[in-house]
Design a protein that fits this description.
The complex is a heterodimer of chains A (about 500) and B (about 325).
Chain A (H helix, E strand, L loop, with lengths): L3 E12 L2 E12 L3 E6 L5 H8 L7 E6 L2 E3 L4 H6 L2 E4 L11 H5 L15 H14 L15 H14 L4 E5 L7 H16 L3 E5 L3 H7 L2 E6 L2 E7 L5 H9 L18 E10 L3 E9 L3 E6 L5 H9 L6 E6 L2 E3 L4 H6 L2 E4 L3 H5 L6 H6 L7 E2 L3 E2 L1 H15 L15 H14 L4 E5 L7 H16 L3 E5 L3 H7 L2 E6 L2 E7 L5 H8 L15
Parallel strand pairs in A: 3-8, 3-9, 6-7, 7-8, 13-20, 13-21, 16-19, 19-20
Antiparallel strand pairs in A: 1-2, 1-4, 4-5, 9-10, 11-12, 11-14, 14-15, 17-18, 21-22
Chain B lengths: L14 H22 L6 H26 L7 H18 L4 H24 L5 H20 L4 E2 L4 H8 L2 H6 L5 H19 L1 H18 L4 H27 L1 E2 L7 H11 L11 H20 L4 H23 L2
Antiparallel strand pairs in B: 1-2
Classes of the chains: A alpha/beta (about 500), B mainly alpha (about 325).
Chain lengths: ~500, ~325
């Protein structure tokens, strides 16, 4: 086998509150494409950012061609021959392609502080020839398609004579034809001895391009397979694994058959494509899928936070037109956003003010004066009903724990008398004890006749709580599954089902 | 993900278009006023417009760099005054030779700019706040150093000659003051720096995507400081020029000039969000402002209304630019 370019041993990394990487070992050979896969938050990007000089490791060793190195910043990584291409491209849109590639090392004119654009363009053209890229070095980057911009990043990485190229979700925004172009370049690089790490969710593509596949989960390296031995099922089961607590699913009693919310053919650019589903009274409808699948976008579209290109929304059989969140609230829809600190709470204000926030008109006298007495009594009731742990209703919300902050947000929407509640990652950043309280709350809400949409990236949570599960992939609904006979593998299979390669029988291997 | 959808370069939306539009606007104004009043279309009046643009134009050159870089500099006006005062001190009170005094004025401006740059890039103070602080500091220092009294250059008439004399007049008989030539020379200098040097390249790069520039290994702190220092240099040049024009350093002057400078930059097509702009655009913008002011005055429009019109032009120019950019 070819030589080992990089070996990472025992890499450990912690961020406040989360053990991002747990004793990870990883190696990359020359002339190989090594895919790195895993669920959201598995640690793929984090591990590679350590190699790329963006993060620093807490423990462990990195060996480059046998020699141990300490990579402290991006510049040094580049000098060592490591280049990383991020999902968010690092380009200056107003500058030309050539100027972008050679930023920081511009060829100079006879006078050393003057740049020599002619030579810069010539160097860029030579580079493009090497890579068989069809680019004009004088084009402004802003005028390029995303695919071409990505190629500029690749060209830039290679102009450093990188032996190691890390690509984070390179195909996420590309069409099939553009992906073919990208793979052609990757194959050529591979035949030149370059080692490539390919981080991706897209399992079908890996078969076409990767030599080995390493699966990560919860910050650990689970296993490394040769692509020829890897089946889709095997990869999925490694990604998903077993849960820590094998508790019985706590699905509440069957909801009624009354449909409270129905959406048909929601479309928004490439983000939402023909999304249709319904929600029954007293039901908890789970929404599963990978990051970027479009679940939050569905929620925001229903809630009026984003526009729709087309589609219809029916509440209790009547068609409604929701153009802004205020309309949604009037129709009884509440949205508990993913990032409660940013979108769900005003941190500088206290508990009672936050609870009243979505229904202020009920707390006003003569349209301007705030009825403080009423605000306080309603807040006290809600704190009691939801068991919110706070010294008082005058406590500023940013001092509460995550779980209690979440309860304040729930309290806000209950006070606004909403019947349809959309929870986006309801237990993110909340400790185990508080999680079960939230789950109980959700079940109580469902039993009381409220209808809940629960978006979550934690599969155990989805399995535990949902009556039915809607699975999304890249803007489309790939499956609406019943709670019976539901497994994590099944959900993950639907979550990785891209539109262009959807087959009739999901469970067959590649 | 970064923008963009299709690759076709839209001529209407290119930078050149903005300059063409601004230039056309200037031509329309010149023709319009010339038709409206015979007093406008005299040689002396055109010279008057050129002269009136000199100081503001020089300040706007420095502001162009800062704005392309994605920042703002509110101190260009009072730093100009401080530089004028210091030039007065060097030449008049300390009796230094005129060239030395001029260099002292330029250095004063550059130093103020350097301090701005350091506050912004090392102490991470937002440009608006840092330069606002410098605005007050420079204003106060001007009053302190000059003891609240104007400094006159009566003992050194050569100083005024430098700006208000006319080399062009001596050679060809066209009595255009030197100050105008200095403006154009400074503009050429600024243009070369912006388009042909590393400093210019990084000015655009940081304005376009500062983080990407930083991650590409460029020492953003150093280059940002350089940009503000350069702006300070132009403020210093403006100070020397205005002192020569008025034959005195007026410490109470200055505040308000930064707004005209920024207006000129914006009217000329430079975007406040950074990453694009041109010296040519700024010069055209500066001339549009002074042509407007001059023309309206000749038509006996009260001065207050001239200011209102300038404000409307700024808003209109930026709005047209936004429309033009909408893809």
């Amino acid at each position: 086998m070819s030589e080992v370019l990089v070996r990472m041993e025992g890499i450990d990394k912690r961020f406040p509150g989360v053990h991002a990487l747990d004793q990870c070992d990883f190696d990359l050979r020359a002339g190989e494409v090594h895919a790195l896969v895993g669920e959201n938050g598995a640690g793929k990007s984090t591990l590679m950012k350590i190699l790329g000089g963006i993060y620093s490791k807490d423990e462990g060793h990195v060996y480059l061609e046998g020699r141990e190195v300490e990579i402290v910043n991006v510049r040094q990584a580049q000098h060592l021959g490591i280049s990383m291409i991020h999902q968010e491209l690092n380009l200056m849109p107003h500058l030309t392609i050539a100027q972008n590639i050679y930023i920081g090392r511009e060829p100079r004119a006879r006078v050393s502080f003057m740049v020599d654009d002619k030579t810069t363009n010539e160097k860029a053209e030579k580079l493009f020839e090497l890579l068989s890229l069809d680019l004009d070095p004088d084009t402004k980057v802003a005028d390029l398609t995303v695919a071409k911009q990505q190629m500029v990043e690749i060209a830039k990485a290679l102009s450093f004579n990188s032996k190691i190229l890390i690509m984070d979700e390179p195909t996420a925004a590309l069409t099939d034809a553009e992906i073919e172009d990208l793979f052609r370049i990757i194959r050529e690089l591979r035949s030149n001895g370059v080692g490539i790490v390919h981080i991706s969710h897209r399992l079908e593509e890996l078969k076409l391009i990767a030599d080995r596949i390493t699966v990560m989960r919860d910050g650990r390296i689970i296993d490394t397979l040769l692509t020829e031995n890897a089946t889709r099922n095997k990869i999925i089961s490694l990604m998903v694994g077993r849960t820590i607590y094998e508790s019985e699913p706590e699905i509440p009693e069957n909801p009624s058959q009354e449909v409270v919310l129905e959406v048909r053919n929601l479309n928004r650019g490439k983000t939402l494509r023909d999304v249709s589903f319904d929600l029954k009274k007293g039901e908890i409808l789970g929404f599963a899928g990978l990051m970027g699948a479009g679940r939050t976008d569905v929620a925001r579209a229903i809630f009026g936070a984003d526009n729709l290109d087309s589609g219809e929304i029916y509440i209790k059989g009547q068609q409604v037109h929701i153009h802004k969140p205020k309309d949604a609230v009037v129709y009884g829809i509440g949205y508990l956003s993913e990032d409660r600190k940013r979108y769900g709470l005003t941190l500088g204000m206290d508990v009672k003010e936050n609870i009243a926030m979505a229904s202020m008109k009920n707390f006003l006298r003569w349209f301007t004066w705030v009825d403080f007495k009423k605000q306080s009594s309603v807040a006290k009731e809600m704190v009691g009903a939801l068991n919110i742990k706070t010294p008082s209703i005058d406590q500023k919300v940013n001092y509460l724990s995550g779980g209690n902050q979440q309860k304040v947000v729930i309290g806000k929407w209950l006070t606004a008398d909403t019947d349809i509640l959309i929870f986006d990652e309801p237990t993110r950043g909340i400790d185990v004890g508080a999680k079960s309280e939230i789950y109980k709350l959700l079940n109580d809400l469902a039993s009381a006749g409220k209808s809940v949409i629960m978006i979550s990236s934690e599969l155990p949570e989805i399995l535990r709580m949902s009556h039915r599960v809607v699975v999304m992939c890249e803007g489309r609904i790939t499956g609406i599954l019943d709670a019976n006979d539901l497994t994590q593998e099944k959900i993950m299979t639907y979550a990785t089902m891209r539109g262009s390669i959807v087959q009739e029988h999901v469970s067959t291997s590649i | 993900m970064q923008n963009n959808t299709n690759a076709s370069k839209n001529l209407f939306q290119s930078d050149a278009m903005q300059q063409i539009m601004a230039f056309s606007a200037l031509i329309v104004l010149l023709i319009g006023f010339s038709v409206a009043s015979p007093y406008f279309r005299t040689f002396d009046n055109f010279v008057g417009i050129l002269l009136a643009t000199a100081v503001n134009g020089v300040l706007a050159l420095g502001a162009t760099f800062v704005i392309i870089n994605g920042g703002i500099d509110l101190s260009v006006g009072t730093v100009m005054t401080l530089s004028a005062v210091m030039t007065g001190v060097f030449i008049t009170e300390m009796g230094l030779p005129i060239p030395v005094g001029i260099i002292g004025g330029l250095l004063t401006g550059s130093l103020a700019g350097f301090i701005n740059g350091t506050l912004i890039s090392r102490m991470k103070i937002p440009p608006f706040i840092a330069t606002l602080g410098m605005l007050y500091i420079a204003k106060g220092l001007s009053l302190v150093i000059s003891d609240l009294r104007p400094i006159y250059f009566n003992d050194t008439p050569m100083f005024r000659q430098m700006a208000m004399g006319s080399i062009l007049g001596d050679i060809t008989g066209l009595n255009v003051p030197n100050a105008v030539l200095i403006l154009f020379a400074a503009a050429l200098f600024a243009h070369i720096i912006l388009t042909r040097t590393i400093l210019g390249r990084y000015t655009f790069a940081m304005g376009s995507n500062e983080e990407a520039t930083r991650l590409s290994g460029v020492n953003v702190a150093v280059w940002k400081t350089a940009v503000f220092t350069l702006a300070g240099f132009f403020s210093g040049l403006g100070g020397v020029l205005i002192a020569a024009r008025l034959n005195s350093a007026q410490p109470a002057l200055g505040a308000g000039y930064e707004l005209d400078a920024i207006a000129a930059v914006v009217i000329g097509g430079t975007s406040l969000s950074g990453g694009e702009g041109s010296i040519l655009g700024t010069i055209i913008g500066a001339f549009i402002i002074s042509t407007l002011t001059n023309g309206l005055r000749i038509l006996s429009v009260p001065q207050e209304w001239q200011i209102v019109v300038t404000g409307c032009i700024v808003i209109l120019a930026v709005y047209l630019d936004i429309l033009r950019r909408r893809r």
